[in-house]
Amino acid sequence: MINIKKLILILIICMITATLGCASLGMQTIPLDQLKMKYADAQSQILQIDDINIHYKDEGQGPVLILLHGVCSSLHTWDGWAERLKGHYRVLRVDLVGFGLTGPAPDASFYQIDNAVNFFERVVNEMKLEKFYIAGNSLGGYIAWKYTLKHPEKVEKLILVDSVGFPQPLPGLIAFASFPIIRIYARFIMPKFIFDTAVSQVFGDQSKVTDKLKDRYYELAMREGNKGATIDVFTEFRRQCSDKNLSAGISELKPPVLVMWGTKDIWIPYTTEFPKWKKELPTAKFIVYEGAGHVPMEEIPDETARDVDLFLSGKM
């Protein structure tokens, strides 16, 4: 049974619907060509696997470093790292299926973790990558460590940034949008003010949450199919985050691991989730960023990229 807060929110949305246009409510779709003009550049490339066109960037030379973003995000969340690390590494970052310019999977079963890992395996094989470093944030971290469990021979070092790893209460936006009644409508209506709130929540320092940043997150979510894909991912998260076996295998990770976390992360809370990683991976390296939120690689790229370079180069 839906609670009173959800009923109130539905009523608010209905009232806003009567006074605002489709754009403010996230009912529109932004054409892919229009998004490419704004969010693709000379470094953008496309890798086609089956009917999915994966948008990725391949920059720099040296040891390969793959970067995987989190939910509601895109490869642009790694802009700061790419700029700072491409002088020493070949930095590969992708728009995960369901997000960014890549767009949705053919069906919702794709977003089950084993299927997502298997698809990432195909990406690695298509790119003919033999050995590499891998870093993942949030959902990207989940895919990264699950892939590492399956292919420890390929991953030389693993970096987890505020990563999914253990059963936990769902973040507010994911809990609301994946609620059975709400998700029927959320596939078509994703109001910008809700999205803007979510972007603000993943940053610790609100002075860094610019209109340009909020527009990027929102506009890429308006790509054809991405709203539905987002809800499919949220729905899968609802199932996964109550699964007591979610963390199975973490203690068995073989490559060296660096775990990075922002103390103001409220999506995967530092106070409750970070200690679980320290317990399961006692030999890993751990770095905490005071005042940073859920996406410290985007919020404080200078500091986090420096630490990544120290870890990968063996100086940490």
Compact description:
This protein is of the alpha/beta class and 316 residues long. The chain has helices at residues 4-19, 22-25, 32-39, 79-85, 113-126, 139-150, 172-177, 180-186, 192-201, 211-221, 226-240, 270-280, 296-299, 301-312, and strands at 44-49, 52-59, 64-68, 90-94, 132-137, 155-161, 257-262, 285-289.
Topology summary:
Elements: H1 4-19, H2 22-25, H3 32-39, E1 44-49, E2 52-59, E3 64-68, H4 79-85, E4 90-94, H5 113-126, E5 132-137, H6 139-150, E6 155-161, H7 172-177, H8 180-186, H9 192-201, H10 211-221, H11 226-240, E7 257-262, H12 270-280, E8 285-289, H13 296-299, H14 301-312
Parallel strand pairs: 3-4, 3-5, 5-6, 6-7, 7-8
Antiparallel strand pairs: 1-2, 2-4
Task: Please name the defining characteristics of this protein.
43% helix; Rossmann fold; eight-stranded mixed β-sheet; alpha/beta; single chain; 316 residues; disordered N terminus
Q: Specify the CATH homologous superfamily.
A: Alpha/Beta hydrolase fold, catalytic domain
The domain count comes to 1
Q: Trace the largest sheet across and list its strands.
A: 1-2-4-3-5-6-7-8
CATH architecture: 3-Layer(aba) Sandwich
Looking at the structure, the CATH topology is Rossmann fold
SS-based class: alpha/beta
What sort of overall outline do the alpha carbons produce when their principal axes are compared? globular
- Percent helix among the residues? 40-55%
* Count of beta strands: 8
Largest sheet: 8 strands, mixed
Q: Helical region count? A: 14
Secondary-structure element series: HHHEEEHEHEHEHHHHHEHEHH
Distance between the termini: 51 Å
Strand content: 15-25%
